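Have a close read of the entry that follows and walk me through the local backbone shapes. See right below:
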Amino acid sequence: MLFPRLFVLLCCLALGVPSARAELADLPLAPGAFRWADDATASGPLYLIVSIARQRVHVYRGDRLIGAASVSTGTKGHRTPTGSFPILQKRQWHRSNLYSNAPMPFMQRLTWDGIALHAGHNPGYPASHGCIRLPYAFARQLFALTRIGTLTEVTSDRLNAAILLDLLVVGDAGSSVVTFGMGGGMGSGDRRVGAGTRVPLLEIDPDIFGVWGRR
């Protein structure tokens, strides 16, 4: 069976978002700027996606984009690593053990060798020693939302949410993965998950999924 071996960590690969969230995703952000669009109807796990190329972080709650901010990642020679990192430690007031006792307010550790989210200088381009610097007020609000284990995914460019599959599923030629998207019916296209695996896009029934089924 597919589903016992399917671990959906970030679960909106192809889902559209209401117009307010779409505007948030497309909104230009000046260095040090941020926006929140959280509301009581959003539910599900909190997670972050950081794009190094775009110097931007998106915060999701379940399938909703609830926040966006400019960031400053690592410079050449101190590049911020890409990958998925659960928050390992949180300290509201922290100083660097590696770089001249530098202040790192609202520190959220991603690795034990010095990579963290924290408030800091945010010029709109890579300027850190590898950490992900956030606007101060945004870092404070984010610190209040996250928990130990909250997932942060650092990517080269991508900001949209993704679906992560167990390797047993990806490597099983007899398995298929269905995603639900707003892009049309069965004939509108397909997606690949692993080598040679085609994943059809299906029409969402608005009678079942409400607003998600409407264009």
Notes: Residues 136-145 form the longest helix (10 residues).
